[in-house]
Design brief:
The chain is mainly beta and about 170 residues long. The chain has three helices and eleven strands; from the N terminus they run βαβαβββαββββββ. The strands form two sheets. Strands 3-2-1-9-10-11 form a six-stranded mixed β-sheet. β1, α1 and β2 form a beta-alpha-beta unit.
């Protein structure tokens, strides 16, 4: 199973379209907020009726009908997805970790900071942020996203990927 995880595209969608095209086929796409209305076009851009799409509302999604946060199943895993701004992620991941643990999920996914993050906690919780495809804020300011893959044994693997010159270059493997 292959999952594309993105966030903070802010209606600047060319990089998202490029990533969708280059990453396809995938079984699920998760957008962690601040689409600013582009979620209406995801099905069309993906063009795969079997692909499951999950999107949550970010702090700039004023007119969105997406949920603010939700829990989803990915293979044998339960994930909590949220834009993260309601959990103080700009100051650190403690708030979203606490919420994820209270929900008894395996994975917490958030956006908002525009910086990629992949954190493995001692209790098995995985906390991740794909960064931003439109306005990256980390050193080097490369647009980023995450590809999550579930292998034949049901184990999750994550790759933080960076977009350079409209070409994908996976940069960090875990």
């Amino acid at each position: 199973m292959k999952i594309l995880i993105v966030s903070d595209t802010h209606r600047k969608d060319q990089n998202l379209k490029t990533v969708i095209e280059k990453t396809a086929p995938f079984d699920m796409m998760i957008h962690l907020g601040d689409t600013e209305g582009s979620e209406a076009y995801f099905k069309e851009w993906i063009n795969n009726d079997r692909c499951v799409i999950h999107a949550v509302r970010g702090n700039n999604d004023f007119f969105s009908f997406c949920e603010r946060e939700k829990e989803i199943s990915i293979g044998n895993y339960r994930a909590f997805i949220s834009h993260g701004h309601m959990y103080g992620v700009s100051l650190g991941t403690e708030g979203i970790k606490e919420e994820a643990r209270s929900r008894k999920v395996n994975i917490a996914m958030f956006g908002h900071t525009h910086k990629p993050c992949l954190e493995y906690c001692n209790d098995g919780l995985v906390v991740l942020n794909p960064g931003s495809l439109s306005y990256p804020r980390q050193d080097g300011r490369k647009p980023s996203y995450i590809v999550m893959e579930i292998d034949r044994e049901g184990e999750a693997h994550y790759t933080i990927c960076y977009l350079e010159n409209n070409a994908m270059e996976p940069s960090i493997f875990f």
